[in-house]
Design a protein that fits this description.
By secondary structure, the protein is of the alpha/beta class. It has a single domain, classed as Collagenase (Catalytic Domain). The chain is 38% helix and 14% strand. Strands 1, 2, 3, 4, 5, 6 and 7 form a 7-stranded mixed sheet that branches. Strand 6 and strand 7 form a beta hairpin. Helix 3 crosses helix 8. The longest helix has 22 residues.
Length: 311
């Protein structure tokens, strides 16, 4: 492997699938400081994190990683490889449900995705500068439009009535971000709240996906937490991976290439391979709740169609 275990761990995002609930609270953006105090002033802890992640991004780029080209002639893959990668990424979990960062046991589950429209909002902590807010809002909006076109599933930006909340916050915004999470998910489980209260530095970003109360395999709500201390490319990488994982591609695989669903950090942004994974995930021939065994021949057929019959 070209990266140390520490770097690989540091690039890991988390998908935590939790029991569903109904959001009946008004929207209150994260606020971490009284209104009479200056904003955009970083604490020593936040400044240290920003320097750490800036060095990390520079190191990865020096190694030729964090590619943004989407893959090319050096990263070929066949329909069989695509189907295999889809099964590993869509039917297996990285972390055990409702248990924070406890590793999953490795058993295949059923397919999970959104059946209803996905309405995405982006909110910022008070310490996030206006320039960064504008940049990140444009990044999320453009990515959401791309996902809508790719999947054929209704995915759009919303100021109100969102069910997929992207929170871009710094360490200094953490108390307010926790309050916002409790507003969105009043009955969130203790293990998840404990994780959010003290996110390890090794975790760049994470997404929590919540199932519908009436259908455990149908996502009804999600919250992505993205560190504002990241430099631009790492922050954009988090946006790409966490939103895609929150749509149902919950796992990573060391065999997936070219892909952001791989802890090797080779690719920073959604690749052509990953676009196909999303197309398979939301193909109408599959349904939420289908098992890996039931889905396997359907997935192979879709993969062959996407790659022009190549196996």
């Amino acid at each position: 492997m070209r990266l140390s275990a520490l770097i690989k761990a540091a690039a890991t995002g988390a998908v935590l699938a939790l029991p569903g609930c109904i959001d009946t609270t008004p929207r209150t953006p994260p606020q971490s400081r009284p209104s009479d105090l200056p904003t955009n002033i970083q604490s020593a802890q936040s400044q240290a994190l920003a320097k750490y992640y800036a060095r990390m991004q520079a190191d990865l780029l020096t190694q030729g990683l964090l590619r943004t080209d989407g893959g090319g002639p050096d990263t070929p893959f066949s329909a069989d490889i695509l189907a295999r990668n889809f099964e590993r990424i869509a039917f297996f979990d990285e972390y055990e449900r409702g248990a924070g960062l406890r590793a999953a046991r490795g058993d295949a589950g059923a397919l999970r995705r959104w059946n209803g429209p996905v309405r995405v909002s982006v909110e910022f902590g008070l310490t996030v500068s206006k320039d960064q807010q504008a940049k990140d809002r444009a990044s999320v909006s453009g990515y959401v439009d791309r996902l809508n076109r790719l999947t054929g599933h209704p995915i759009s930006m919303r100021e109100q009535g969102a069910n997929f909340h992207v929170l871009i916050v710094s360490e200094d915004d953490r108390p307010a971000a926790l309050s916002r999470v409790r507003q969105i998910v009043p009955n969130i489980n203790p293990a998840s709240m404990q994780l959010l209260q003290d996110i390890p530095r090794a975790i760049h970003c994470l997404v929590l996906a919540f199932s519908d109360a009436e259908n455990d395999h149908n996502y009804a709500k999600a919250i992505a937490i993205i560190r504002a201390e990241h430099p631009d490319l790492l922050r954009q990488s988090c946006i790409h991976e966490e939103i895609a994982q929150g749509l149902g591609l919950a796992n990573d695989s060391p065999q997936a290439r070219p892909s952001i669903f791989n802890d090797d950090d080779e690719f920073a942004l959604l690749t052509t391979h990953d676009e196909m994974l999303l197309k398979i995930l939301y193909d109408r021939r599959l349904q939420a709740g289908i098992s890996a065994e039931q889905a396997r021949p359907i997935v192979r057929q879709i993969a062959r169609e996407l790659l022009g019959g190549s196996s």
